[in-house]
């Protein structure tokens, strides 16, 4: 049986000590499309060492920056073919603005396994601390494994974030590059779904798709820039549910509603929703 919830839930996936440097942060930002306007003061804070700001979403990918092999979905109680897996949800809470260089230790565990009938959802939570033991950030993510449900487990909670019934306060268009996925894979995600046309076709897609976490980072950046003037220190967290795929070269349209200490966001590519239940939490 590829999934055994009695073994998986509560299991430690990994405990890893890792480091990042300014070039790592610069690469991540460039892979999200930063620097499109190379004389913009806001863009230069993402793309040069002078006054370097770090997008909070960098914390999600920081532990895997040095990965050069395709990921494996092999955890205690979980063995799944990579071609069946899609990213379901992603959330990060930053406990303080991320430094441009650091050494950290992250502890990752499986918190839940849900049975959606035709699919399974595996939820992981990770906490990163610095060398003094002070928390840097906490992430929570889920992966959606097609064809792996039906084991009799709980379906899990059903929650959604509905935007207000009025026009959005901001509409932000963010073009992606045709080579965006090839750039982003250098940040540690070498899943061939994003680079190999034959692998993408076998997974049911007409061509390689953009990494969900690339879309996640691009939208966080777009909202931070378009609403907060590029002030990353105002961002306490960013959460989303992946609602559809993006093909490199498409333009992302983010609609944003201001609501107290939250910015509610929907994102589409053409007429297809790609991010839903998206919330940027303000400090």
Automatic annotation (TrEMBL):
Pfam families: MaoC_dehydratas (PF01575), MFE-2_hydrat-2_N (PF22622)
GO terms, biological process: fatty acid beta-oxidation
InterPro entries: HotDog_dom_sf, MaoC-like_dom, MFE-2_N
Stretches for region Disordered: 147-168
Signal sequence coordinates: none
Domain spans labelled MaoC-like: 162-264
Entry-linked CDD domains: HDE_HSD
Family: Belongs to the enoyl-CoA hydratase/isomerase family.
Protein name: 3-alpha,7-alpha, 12-alpha-trihydroxy-5-beta-cholest-24-enoyl-CoA hydratase
Protein's organism: Kibdelosporangium phytohabitans
Taxonomic lineage of the native organism: Bacteria, Bacillati, Actinomycetota, Actinomycetes, Pseudonocardiales
